[in-house]
User: What shape does this take?
Amino acid sequence: MILYGNWRSLATYRVRVALALKGIPHEVAAINMQGNEHRGAAFKALSPQGVLPALDDGHGAVLFQSLAILEYLEEAHPTPALLPKNLAARARVRGLSLIVAADAHPLLVPRVREFLQQEAGLHDGELKSWLDRALLTALDAIEANLHASPDTGEFCHGDTPTMADICLASHLIAAQFFKCDTSSYKEAQRIFANCNLIPAFADSHPLKQPGAPA
Assistant: This one.
């Protein structure tokens, strides 16, 4: 397998954590996102949308979109499981994951930030308000679910990490990058701390990757 990504890409972080949790050997191909390599013809020949990450599965397929890649890894390498066995539980984990990956994260990505500043004319303060709203609206929903559900344990669902924890961790790292105060989200912060006790999470942090600033 070859993982095409960038140290800063939080979607790449999600895949990196899943590969580490499952102990799946892979190569890393660093894509210069700051230099717009992901928007160039060579990368788009691999992944036409031109977004990170992409995963060459080693069998002729190039996979794209982080949650689709996580689902593939779960089906191809089911141990340790990132989804519970119970159908309702699986739906809950997927739902928590999608709050991050489908609702919030698309509002934070560089191409959206660039449009808001360069085309819509938002100044830095207005952009910060946009980012805070996207981050905190998602956390409001996640925190409420974590508090209300008896299925919340040491992690988002039970006492072992799932896809939901990978997504939550990526969201809280985004909040750190954008200097958004999330200290009042006690359940989310507790679970994030538990995640970071696991090497697969801690070692996958964007700032620990080659190319990241010191």
Observations:
- Residues 124 and 172 are 21 Å apart (CA to CA).
- The longest strand covers residues 2-5.
